[in-house]
């Protein structure tokens, strides 16, 4: 082959190698950029970086979740949770704050209520806002109304006229006991149990007529009962869930802004339709109120 031909061939080969190298480099950059943002299976909306948060881990929103509550946090462990109402709420917070990750941090409920637990930015854990708790920690504006659902055996007749004649089960330490005693005034004092499974067992055994517990939780129990149980109504107790932050957190105002923004733009309504209604079998806010 003539020398000119060899030179031309070498030049073409060099150009091809250069282009290939550039393509590989750009692909790597694109892949890195894509992988840098992780919000699980959530759809994030709003303006990225519109709110400023000061986080314990740069670029990451560290959140204390609660396990074992499908619809809110879908998964059995922090490593497996990638969606759910509260997870995707956190993802939208992170995105709108210009962050690229949501990290789930394990802390006990008792720890975060002390106001001294560290290593997280916010707890989104279905926490009811109360005055005693507000003395120790700060709460965001409410993002969910936590009424008390009335769970009974299917076919049990319940209306405002017979509320006082029912035998109720409540969990120890909850506000349901005081509400029933003071507002419903049943002929028989409510039976107090240490945990929800014990209440459900008592209902199945006929020891009580109704379990009174957070509406989303009893809806889930009814859905998984194969028709044996139903939620006939709820007591509008005025309880609300808020995000929890320590007293020294610099982010309370920013979190409030994020929550109010998601209320106004329909994000919470979309999350309810996507995660709560299918998982719970009904929208908790649409369960009829049976206040005495």
Descriptive key words:
single chain; 292 residues; alpha/beta; D-Maltodextrin-Binding Protein, domain 2; 2 domains; 5-stranded mixed sheet; 15% strand
Give structural notes.
- The chain folds into two domains: 60-145 and 239-286, Periplasmic binding protein-like II (D-Maltodextrin-Binding Protein, domain 2, 3-Layer(aba) Sandwich); 148-235, 3-Layer(aba) Sandwich (D-Maltodextrin-Binding Protein, domain 2), CATH 3.40.190.
- It has nine helices and twelve strands.
- The chain has helices spanning 3-36, 85-96, 109-113, 131-134, 176-184, 196-204, 215-223, 252-264, 267-280, and strands spanning 60-64, 101-104, 122-123, 138-139, 144-145, 148-153, 168-171, 191-193, 210-214, 229-235, 240-241, 244-245.
- The strands form four sheets. It has a five-stranded mixed beta sheet, with helices on both faces. It has a three-stranded parallel beta sheet with strand order 2-1-3, covered by helices on one side.
- Helix 2 (85-96) crosses helix 8.
- The longest helix is centred in the N-terminal third of the chain and has 34 residues, at 3-36.
- Residues 66-279 form the Solute-binding protein family 3/N-terminal domain.
- This is ABC transporter substrate-binding protein.
């Amino acid at each position: 082959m003539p020398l000119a031909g060899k030179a031309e061939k070498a030049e073409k080969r060099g150009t091809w190698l250069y282009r290939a190298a550039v393509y590989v480099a750009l692909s790597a950059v694109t892949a890195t950029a894509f992988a840098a943002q992780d919000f699980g299976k959530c759809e994030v909306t709003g303006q990225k970086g519109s709110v400023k948060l000061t986080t314990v881990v740069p670029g990451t929103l560290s959140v204390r979740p609660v396990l074992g509550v499908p619809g809110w946090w879908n998964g059995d462990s922090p490593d497996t949770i990638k969606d759910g109402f509260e997870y995707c709420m956190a993802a939208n917070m992170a995105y709108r704050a210009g962050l690229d990750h949501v990290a789930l941090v394990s802390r006990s409920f008792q720890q975060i209520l002390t106001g001294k637990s560290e290593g997280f930015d916010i707890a989104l854990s279905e926490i009811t806002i109360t005055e005693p708790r507000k003395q120790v920690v700060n709460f965001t504006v409410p993002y969910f109304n936590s009424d008390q659902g009335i769970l009974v055996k299917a076919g049990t007749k319940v209306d405002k006229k017979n509320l006082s004649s029912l035998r109720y089960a409540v969990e120890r330490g909850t506000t349901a006991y005081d509400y029933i005693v003071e507002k419903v005034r049943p002929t028989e004092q409510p039976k107090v149990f240490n945990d929800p499974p014990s209440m459900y067992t008592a209902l199945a055994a006929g020891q009580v007529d109704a379990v009174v517990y957070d509406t989303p939780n009893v809806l889930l129990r009814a859905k998984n009962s194969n028709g044996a149980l139903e939620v006939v109504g709820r007591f509008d107790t005025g309880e609300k869930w808020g995000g929890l932050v320590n007293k020294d957190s610099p982010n309370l105002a920013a979190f409030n802004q994020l929550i109010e923004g998601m209320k106004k733009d329909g994000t919470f309504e979309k999350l309810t339709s996507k995660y709560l209604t299918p998982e719970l079998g009904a929208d908790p806010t649409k369960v009829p109120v049976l206040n005495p």
